[in-house]
Design brief:
Rossmann fold; two-stranded parallel sheet; 49% helix; seven-stranded parallel beta sheet; alpha/beta
Length: 270
């Protein structure tokens, strides 16, 4: 274990990438704080139950951590949930809820830590995005779009805060074995025209996630890169996904959409 008094805050700490990353930082000797919507405890982690959409309470929480520790060095943004369904049939209130949690929740807590990082002239902010931000997934349009928004947010923020010793990294993992599928909200199919294609999409997503990377592997990549002296602006996780992201830069979007259509078997559906 490394003797280390640096402080890490992790959202979505109770499961998935958040918990796996928290364990690595803890085992390396960092002081790890974090919260999730449901109560959660684990030895060596300072956790609390907190709704990330309670923006005022999140601001108070960040202030409490800083007043106790006199520093906040790392923020790992991992909170979020997924929605599967057609754009036409997904309820607008559910769409708003996803953006409130996944996008605005991330923006709010990031805004809250910046003054404290500036005060110490050091900070590292990790935004856990997704390959879906680069390759918008059919019937996951709102998940894909909020991840794309986070990528733009992170890159713009990095330029703004760089003079203060703060650096931002967008992590772009591919499919991984987490509980994300269990927590995904599948909207009701009110229009039969979408039924077969949504079922095909869900089947492929589940198969890809079952064959995906371990959350521990993703967490190791996050830790290794966010603790570098010069962390990358963007880090794609997974060899096959790195290749896909590289191809995206070479080929026109029309071709990328054609490939996605083939991947999900939609071209066979009339």
């Amino acid at each position: 274990m490394v003797n280390n008094d640096k402080v890490v805050i992790i959202t979505g700490i109770s499961s998935g990438f958040g918990l796996a990353t928290a364990r690595i930082f803890r085992d390396k000797g960092y002081r790890v704080y974090g919260f999730a919507r449901k109560p959660f405890t684990e030895e060596g982690l300072f956790t609390t139950s907190l709704d990330i959409t309670n923006y005022k309470r999140v601001d108070e929480y960040i202030k409490e951590v800083y007043e106790k520790e006199k520093r906040i060095d790392y923020l790992i943004n991992s909170a979020g949930f997924g929605i599967t369904g057609s754009i036409e049939n997904t309820d607008i209130d559910l769409i708003k809820k996803q953006f409130e949690v996944n996008y605005f929740g991330t923006v709010n807590i990031t805004k809250a830590v910046i003054p404290y990082m500036r005060a110490n002239n050091f900070g590292r902010i990790a935004i856990i995005s997704s390959v879906a931000a680069v390759f918008p997934i059919p019937f996951q349009a709102f998940y894909s779009s909020h991840k794309a928004a986070l990528n733009s947010f992170g890159e713009a923020l990095n330029i703004e805060v760089k003079p203060f010793g703060i650096k931002v990294t967008n992590f772009i993992p591919g499919d991984a074995k987490t509980n994300f599928d269990k927590n995904r909200i599948n909207t009701k199919v009110n229009e039969p025209a979408y039924k077969d294609r949504i079922e095909k999409s869900l089947t492929k997503m589940r198969k890809d996630e079952l064959k995906g990377m371990s959350k521990e592997y993703v967490a190791k990549v996050i830790y290794k890169n966010i603790t570098k002296k010069r962390p990358p602006l963007r880090k794609t996780i997974g060899k096959s996904y790195k290749f896909l992201v590289f191809l995206e830069r070479l080929f026109p979007r029309k071709f990328i959409n054609f490939v996605l259509d083939k991947m999900y078997g939609f071209s066979k559906t009339k």
